[in-house]
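W.,

You were right to be curious about this one. When I first looked at the sequence I had no strong expectations either way, so I just let the prediction run and decided to look at it fresh. Below is the sequence, 464 residues in total, followed by the output.
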Amino acid sequence: MSVTKAAPTGAPQNTRGRVIFASLIGTSIEFYDFYVYATAAVLVFPALFFPNADPTTELLSSFAAFGAAFVARPLGSIVFGHFGDRIGRKGTLVASLLTMGIATFLIGCLPTAHTPGWAFLAPALLVLMRFAQGFGLGGEWSGAALLATENAPKGKRAIYGTFPQMGAPIGFIIANGVFLTLNLSMTPEDFAAWGWRIPFLLSSLLVVVGLYVRLKLIEAPAFQKVLDKGEVAKLPVSRVFRTSWKPLVLGTFIMLATYVLFYLMTAFTLTYGTTPSSADAAAAAAEKAGKPFDPAGFVPGLGYERTDFILMLIFGVVFFGIFTLVAGPLAEKFGRRKMLMLVTLGILVFGALWVPLFSGGLIGTLAVLVIGFTLMGLTFGPMGALLPEMFPTNVRYTGSAVSYNMSSILGAAVAPFIAIALWEAMKGSTLLVGLYLSGSALLTLIALFLSKETRDVDYEGNIS
């Protein structure tokens, strides 16, 4: 594809409001889509798409489909990164948003495995749509981060970089607010029959708003300079692996603890929190659902009602949003590397405290959610600036996208699956789950130690 000429140098630039909203709306949709799927993967998809006599097998099958998106994300990062570094950020952001939005909408239209003649095809189509979600997502985050930071005033990249990161708590609150509303307004039978489709179909409204805003963007000055100088990389993925392989590896592991924490605090805690706390309660729930119950395979959880725990999660995510915004000024003042090393050390300690915290009843559970989501905001906030800063302008989209999404495989794709396996192996204890989080934090600390501070990088002129 030929290189598209962007707006000429000296043309009016994107306004601050447009940059903030355009970078925020895309990642809000991104995380809305993922939270909707993650919640459905716990609540209804096991029974609707992977019916089995064993509830644990149903849940693990559902999470396996959940992980399909993470396999697709690195592929999407290469494809969208290529066009983002070749033809520009704007068109690529529009394409990634459409890919992701259409796939989410179609999930809401799928027949289930209980539909006559669809027992095998329905799960396959769900995995395919999940794969398409991940493919579009592979180019979404990096483009949104570049949109924010390449348009940022001098000395404020980390602050502007928190705008796309705010999409995570906003998307979570919207998605779970929708599920909560549906849960309160309809019977469990109606929700399982058709109500679960509504959150997926509603995503189309957010996509339309996002497209409208992004189509009004113009290219950022940093990429415009690459175009003006004729320094566009012919094959960005080849160049980034050839000239920036070390930042790729370090960026992947710098994101690792963030990803593991993120999906343990959302997908795993929802499973653990809403699992019955006793065999008697589990037997009663199985009887109500018309399913057999095997006490030998029962693994106890916290036993909260679904509505109560979703409200607790939303409460915790408020801290996620607050501290994502706080992280920007802190990373600007103290530097990305130093700040993230301190926060990652906190994540390591937090993982070691999971068992005593979760043993503290309601107060202890709320403490886990508040502390975990606070740490999530502090570690996630600076990533919007740090990862792009690690790469030259003409491979920045590809480099930051590949490292971000490769980390999604090592961290996010397997995190819920590993956590459930460790929880079951310990017969209900979260000791190994917490240590798994601590281990990921240790790897991230090593990567940060081996990396360099990027706060003062020349963002516009660093061409490889």
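Here's what jumped out at me. The chain has one domain: 16-220+237-450. And, maybe more interesting for your project: The radius of gyration is 22 Å.

Coffee later to discuss?

I.
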